[in-house]
Amino acid sequence: MRQLLRNTNFTFILGAVLVFIVVQALISLGVLNAYWQGIIFWGAAITMVSLGLNLIYGFNGQFSLGQFGFYAIGAYASADITYRWVRNDPSALVVVIFGSILALALMFGVSAFLRRFYGVATLTKFLFNFLAAVLGFFLAVRFVNPAIGKVIYAALNALPSGISQQLIFFLALVGGATLAGIVSYLFGIPVLELGSDYFGIATLGFTIIVKVLLDNTDTILPFPEMKGARGMVGIPKWTTWPWVFICFMAVVLVMRNLIHSSTGRAILSVREDERAAELVGIDTASQKILAFVVGSVFAGLAGGIRAHDLAFLHPTTFGFLPSFNPLIIIVFGGLGSMTGTIITGFFWIFLLEGLLRLYLPEGFETWRFVVYPLVLLLMMLLRPQGLMGRYEIAFLRRPLPPLRVKEASPVQEVIPQAGEVTA
Amino acid sequence: MKGRPENLSPEVEARPVILEIDGLTHYFDSLRAVHDFSVTIKEGELVGLIGPNGAGKTTVFNLITGVYRPTAGSIRYEGVQLIGLPSHEIIQMGIARTFQNIRLFANLTVLDNVLIAYHPHSGYGLADSIFRSRRFREREKAMIERSQEFLEIFGLADRQNDIAGSLPYGLQRRLEIARALATQPRLLLLDEPAAGMNPQEIDQLMELIHFIRDRFQLTIFLVEHRMRLVMNICEWITVMDFGEIIARGKPEEVRGNPQVIEAYLGRQAIR
After folding, report:
1. Considering only alpha carbons, which residue of chain A is nearest residue B212?
2. Pick from B107, B161, B208: which is nearest to A272 by CB?
3. How much is the ipTM here?
4. Which of the pair, B76 or B268, is modelled with greater confidence?
């Protein structure tokens, strides 16, 4: 037993299961009311978004402000799927799922084709991939949906309603996340070529574009049910604690396993010194795209969770100011620390949206945007590396490989041992 | 043959060409950095490139490794044209380089620095790492073991978990060479490996360069400033000044060349 407890994987799983059971029990017993439940779900969603941003900025060194744009895409896409589904319209589900599959397949084909040429310009690459994605979704709208929409609807409704609802919710989350991933890939191809600061500006532009499009979903875009700037109402409230928990753990595990692998080290090397990474044979462009897409998929998934908890989406939720929240969280928690992001992410929502709203006088919300920057300023002055620095709890830390047992090697004599002389 | 001194031994001349640079010219806007630079290097040679500050030596390395795209000229590595290829593909073809001012991944561990250079040979994909498949575990273990062997060769084995930036200067130089060799090159470009070293350390470095050349069967092309190193280990030398080649030949010939003395040694040798 003691040995088991020393095994970090075991203790982590044990801890996670305990947290799950305790929260579930509190919800079932009615100790946590709907408000606090919402705070927990919101905290999880924001933490997922922030983890994604930490992968992009903290681990890969690409300063991004676009995370809320992908959060919005995930939220609106998955909300649209379920919104239409409960109104007996499977079109959104079919289009998003099959469109994504077709788009991914076409983009994969296009990329494989372009790889046969040397020196393909970035814009060419972007254009080809963009056309492939557009074609994929066009085919889904024009042919796949009329052809098999009804069949899918009938098939899913043949299932018991509880199961079909969970399945639809799952597909909606996956669809939202995939769509965010596809958009981030297309956006990332040309924009990641820019240096880090320019990339930050471009991603900020992206968030603003998404916000404006969402303001006009019913006029410019053909989605009257999203109701533009009036806000989308009538989304089924399907987010439950098990869903939140599963998605959250999936994000944490995928991120941990990704970082502690050869690819993860390549991602880190881009942050450390992009030129040097390129010159030890690492394809830095694709590492940047990879981190960007994975981070955006996390944000898209979080968007789906949030949308089906709130049951109401409004473009201002994804506006300019709130889009700084994930950035503040990861800087606060420590760039390059998953532990820090998780702690700060939950803490941020608990404190600012939970406690402060409940216990401070009305109207204090207005002051939050004075308090945030002040806190951030103090943080930068007193502890620039963030609360946790690069600290990780044991489960999220990379185990340092043990030293090799030294054998007497003939080589040691050939090479003079370096003196401790410093230059 | 173009780009080589005339009087090298026939045994060396019979070897295959590994790097052939012809008419390489590069302008930074209107500033001519390299002009009509030609060098042909055969397998297993140890060739030096010297010249005063700003002569364009490092630019030549940057052109070979694809950091810049030359204005004109050709660079062939084992017969393949390198111009237009991205840097990482050039490196993966078997050319490795170090930097004049050390560029380690300073916040990562010593072992990670070497492991990163192994990444193109990791042999497992994204899905393997996310699901921690058996292939991931096996390959990862093999990668770590091979990297540790490298560190052992360079006398860094007991510092593998130290942060690279915290190593003393001499060890950082070694780690950079170790990292370059982990990319499994056949041609190694060393950019001022002796910068900032004292004479004793330079002697150690010379031994190290000889050792890695024999052990990994490398061809080495090095840019250097320090005469002590270049004169002792290079088989032949090309001298650059203001972006052009002004002389080439064996160390003792170059040492006596009046043009070289004027351009370079004349100003420096007085010290």
Report:
1. A415
2. B107
3. 0.90
4. B76
Tell me, yes or no, whether B111 and B166 share the same domain.
Answer: yes
Please name which of A185, A189, A165 lies closest in space to residue A177, comparing C-alpha atoms: A185
3-state secondary structure chain B: CCCCCCCCCHHHHCCCEEEEEEEEEEEECCEEEEEEEEEEEECCCEEEEECCCCCCHHHHHHHHCCCCCCCEEEEEECCEECCCCCHHHHHHCCEEECCCCCCCCCCCEHHHHHHHHHHHHCCCCHHHHHHCCHHHHHHHHHHHHHHHHHHHHCCCHHHCCCEHHHCCHHHHHHHHHHHHHHCCCCEEEEECCCCCCCHHHHHHHHHHHHHHHHHHCCEEEEECCCHHHHHHHCCEEEEEECCEEEEEECHHHHHHCHHHHHHHHHHHCCC
Looking at the complex, does the CB of residue A116 fall below 8 Å from at least one CB of chain B? Answer: no
Q: What is the pLDDT of residue A419?
A: 43
Q: How many domains does chain B have?
A: 2
Query: Tokens 């939140």 sit at which residue?
Result: A244
Is B259 found in the same domain as B125? no
Token representation of residue A360: 């401070």
Q: Are A313 and A75 in contact (CB under 8 A)?
A: yes
Cα of A415 to nearest chain B Cα, Å: 6
B116 and B232 belong to one structural domain: no
Please answer whether residues A251 and A34 qualify as being in contact, where contact means their C-beta atoms are separated by less than 8 angstroms.
no
Is residue B121 in a domain?
Answer: yes
User: Residue A226 pLDDT more than 70?
Assistant: yes
Q: Residue A312 belongs to what H/E stretch?
A: strand A312-313
Chain A residues whose CB is inside 8 A of the B112 CB are: 265, 268
Task: Report yes or no: A265 and A284 within 8 Å, Cβ to Cβ.
Answer: no
Is residue B225 a part of any domain in this protein? yes
Are residues B115 and B78 located together in one domain of the fold? no
Report pLDDT for A389. 77
C-alpha span between B156 and B150 (Å, rounded): 8
Structure tokens at B133: 């498949």
Domain that holds residue B55: 10-94+185-268
Q: A272 CB near a chain B CB, below 8 Å? A: yes
Distance separating alpha carbons of residues A303 and A314, to the nearest angstrom: 12
Q: Which of B170, B195, B215 is the last residue of a domain?
A: B170
What are the boundaries of each domain within chain A?
46-314
Contacts of A290 in chain B (CB under 8 A): 126
- pLDDT at residue A339 tops 90: yes
Could you tell me if B127 and B75 lie in one domain? no
Let me know whether B214 and B138 are in one domain. no
Q: Are residues B76 and B205 in the same domain?
A: yes
Band of pLDDT at residue A414, cut at 50, 70 and 90: very low
**Whether B25 and B154 share a structural domain:** no
Do the chains contact at B130 and A258, CB–CB below 8 Å?
Answer: yes
Give helix B169-182 / helix B134-153 axis angle, nearest 10°. Answer: 130
List alpha helices for A140-240, DSSP H. 145-158, 161-191, 196-215
Confidence check: pLDDT of A161 > 90: no
Mean pLDDT of the residues in chain B: 89
pLDDT confidence band for A374 (50 / 70 / 90): confident
CB-CB contact of A121 with A196 (8 Å)? no
In a domain, B42, yes or no: yes
On whether residue B100 sits in a domain, the answer given is no
